[in-house]
Amino acid sequence: MTTLRALVLGCSLKASPASSSSELLGREVLTALADHDVDGEIVRVVDHGVRFGVSTDEGDGDGWPAIRAKLLDAQILVIATPIWMGQPSSVCKMVLERLDAELAETDEQGRPLTYGKVAAVAVVGNEDGAHHVTAEVFQALNDVGFTVPAAAATYWVGEAMQKVDYKDAGPKPDTTGTTTKTLAANTAHLARLLQEASYPAA
């Protein structure tokens, strides 16, 4: 079986080495993907000086081109984001804005370079909004060419107005853990199918 490559973009507001619940869930997704012959890595976006913009390179030390190179080398993209005020994090929104540039980047057959890549989402928070955040991120990723598998989202939401984070709540194997395993199985399956049979030319 061919080994696939996954990139998890951790969209925490906190720079390393601060602990991050969204990064923890992203790492759990990578562990589950490994069971399906998927290799990968996690990149905490805020550590890399990514600039605001809608191009592939905003210049002047922009950290996005290096992350984009990893993304183009992968068949699977996972966005791991916390919920803030019922929304994806500002870092997540910046990533989606940078991905808008992919609409103008095409292969020799006129297809965006993101065609044939699949996307998944991991969400954590202490308030309602996991479904809303998932919907926003999936719609944006689909708009720029990513394919969304069945059940490709996993999340954990703590009690509203409380301060317990996912990283402090302990494992949830029968809930979030099961959902993460389903995400990994479906995402790897679809990624292999698209490697074997790509979308038609534009």
From TrEMBL:
InterPro entries: Flavoprotein-like_sf, FMN_Rdtase-like_dom
Single GO MF descriptor: oxidoreductase activity
Signal peptide: none
Residues in NADPH-dependent FMN reductase-like domain copies: 15-151
Source organism, top-level taxon: Bacteria
Listed Pfam families: FMN_red
Entry protein name: Flavodoxin
